[in-house]
Amino acid sequence: MDRRSFILMGASAGLFALISPRYAFASSKLEEEVRKRVGVSLSQIQQSDQISINAPTIAESGANIPVTVESTIPAERVEHLWVFADKNPVPWITDVKITPANGQVYFSTRIKMGETSNVRAIMKLKDGSHIMNFKEVKVTAGGCG
Amino acid sequence: MKILLFLVSLVFASPQSVDSAIKLASQERRLVAIYFYNKNCIYCTQFEDFVLSQPQTRSALEPFIFVSVELYSEEGSRYGRKFGVVGTPSVVFYNPVEGKVIGKTFGNRPLGEFLKLITDVCKKPLC
Amino acid sequence: MSVGTGILRVPSNIKKGEVFRVQMVITHPMTPPRRDPQTGQEVPPYTLTKLDLFFNDTLVSTINMGAGVSANPFIAISMVAQDNGVVKIVYEDNRGGKWEKTAELKVS
After folding, report:
1. Which residues contact A8 (CB under 8 A, 6 or more apart)?
2. Contacts of A94 in chain C (CB under 8 A)
3. pTM confidence score
4. Residue of A82, B4, B78, B112 with fewest CB within 10 Å of its CB?
């Protein structure tokens, strides 16, 4: 690389950072976690209603939120399932390896959430593609009086 | 030796009672953050896990002298009545020099909201 | 109940080849790393990390989890009733605890 193109590159990178600091630096906890756990970036995952998430719209307490993930895609075509809570300090909640012996994709558990956010389910299919869906769960601030 | 002990107490000071926290704070002209909890309240555990234990909260609370008290203990109910604490979890920000409550929160507020309250409270003198 | 105690339930009346749900509840505190504001002490995490579901010693599913799952985790997952046999769960936590629980599956 010669000196001129090097300077040009630096300048354009600087310009880019100036115009869009958001893109240059900000990558949310969720995005980091998805990249770490799932191995692809969140923006590359298509939303699909072939995954359905059953969770309360308003949770009574953030300590115990029932979440059920189901899919119309047969278990034979699914490899892995992840569940995330977008705004938790650690967004990753759980992940499940799916095999044909599961018969269908059905997974239910209870999770903790610190505040109102999306519950997100991501699936990796056998063909290597990823799909996801999410549902907002409102967590009301509560106390004991 | 005395100076060393004083320094150590400054860094690791985590007063065991509200009385001593307020005394220490007025000596050092600092603010007090008093956390009222109840062992059997799930919202307290939630607030502790999702807000109080988070690194952002810990660094935001550094200017304060932080003390915890069980609301239904003798000392807790005394201060609870004094500061008008309605339940747990509650955090009261208190200026011991002026003898004024400068901020109060009740319930497991989201992290962002709690951090904002700390910033607002911190704008006032002594912080 | 002590930490690690599990309850595993399978339906009693199913046909061969049918898809059914295995349900389980495990006693475990599932605490994240935290600072106890009451004592000021740092408390390391204490959670289940992994649960394997077997049917007749063949792996059906592996579930990884952390402190985001509620205390005393409840899990339900589907599987196929291939034959008569034993449904087994093996689960472990981050402090070296390892337990297993089995349930008999009878198909008609």
Report:
1. none
2. 63-66, 68-69
3. 0.85
4. B4
